[in-house]
Amino acid sequence: MSGIKYTEDHEWIRLDGDTATCGISDYAQEQLGDIVYVELPEVGASLSARDQIAVVESVKAASEVYAPAGGTVSAVNEALADEPTLVNESPTGDGWFAKLTLDDPTELDALMDEAAYKDFVNGLD
Amino acid sequence: MAETQTLERTPLHALHLRLGGKMVAFAGYDMPVQYPAGVLKEHLHTRAAAGLFDVSHMGQVRVSGDDPAGALERLVVGDLKSLAPGAMRYTLFTNAAGGILDDLMVTHAGDHLFVVVNAACKAQDIARMTEGLKGRATVEPLPERALVAVQGPKAAAAVARLAPDSAGLYFLQGAAMAVDGAEGFVTRSGYTGEDGFEISVPAERAEAVARTLLDDPAVEPIGLGARDSLRLEAGLCLYGHDIDATTSPVEAALLWTLAKRRRAEGGFPGAAAILAQIENGVARKRVGLLPDGKAPAREGTEIADAAGRVIGIVTSGGFGPSVGRPVAMGYVETAFARPGAAVDLMVRGTARPATVARMPFIEPGYRRRD
User: Fold this and answer.
1) Helix (H) or strand (E) holding A99
2) Residues of A with CB under 8 A from a CB of B
């Protein structure tokens, strides 16, 4: 299993064999506030890196979430339908959004690792 | 050179920062959209206990003279002349075409009318009143006063500690009274659907009054985010979104603000157009909307019929924390403007089934006289 990687838009992705799992970061869920709904992609959908993969809704607003890397959606987190707050409680664990079969795992090389993302977030606001 | 936006501050600005408020620009003011608790918790707390809201950005105006009610009636649709001392009414400024220029509250405060208007329309409303009442009444803006709201089932107890006389007020009543020793004007009213008060005090006393209220363990500070979700669940309009210069009181389902006498006599801007609408009907009406599923439908979402034809638009929408599901408000063609009508909300290109519903979406908690 590879380490977790992050995008500048606060998405994370983790590769385990052929399957990558993705979601939004702890920083993102904190910024968004209480999440009330997540619109997930269709299983089978084919996406390129930076394509919109999900929409996450807080009480006040909707935010777009982008695919950290290109691939085909192999599964989505059905638990979020009844418990959208899993994203707030466990953003990089039980609050995952989708699993992807990646087109090109080397796309992850350009993303930030945990330490680099932490520095990136500290540099914000 | 880029233009910098200088935001105004209310008398409670420093307190908002100390309380950890997340500040945003609203109607030209630097206001807290939420505090560390967050929108969801702040909303739920208000309905369970008591929320404290800074609404000092709104415009407070005193209208006085021999007949301030008669004078102000020239600009609004409501019956102000029959307001008993201490009584309060929701009314509308209209334009010549019968569109709504703002919604406002008017209270008979003894020797004057106490008027509260929206922050976003404050300058225009004051100019309109000053010009429109010239020679008939004195229009005095009150920028040196703060306004705080305390809303929720525990609001009465919290406010009674600072203003014992507040306990005698029923919903839509107001009176001058000492508030924590400050010279105050208190109305039993609000924008949440809960029992509560709006308290006007001199600006320099505002922080102390707010702190005293917050000392009550039942009272928490509430930001504009929760203020919006609370009023939406209560079915209350937000000017500039659910009502504006292009919507008439008839279309907006606010015909009840047009008193019988005013309907007969006219004498307000747009009277002819509005009376014609009452006679002939209107093409669209404001309604409540309940999405069947869990996806919120926000302002700007198109509303379609079963065949996919666009029949309306959502003007306010979001998640209702107290109802536990998405809620919305919007305009639909009159044929669909009945509770139970089935419509589709086009959320990001997908048709989400919804039902036209009565508002409020929650049970109001007003202290009414039986």
Assistant:
1) strand A98-102
2) 33-34, 36-37, 39, 55, 57-62, 81
